Amino acid sequence: MVKEFKVLNIKCGGCASTVKKALKDEFGEVEVNLEVEPRIITVIADENFDEDKLRQKMKKLGYPFEDEVLGTFEEIGTKAKSFVSCAIGKMDSDS
Question: What global pTM score does this model have?
Answer without folding.
Answer: 0.86
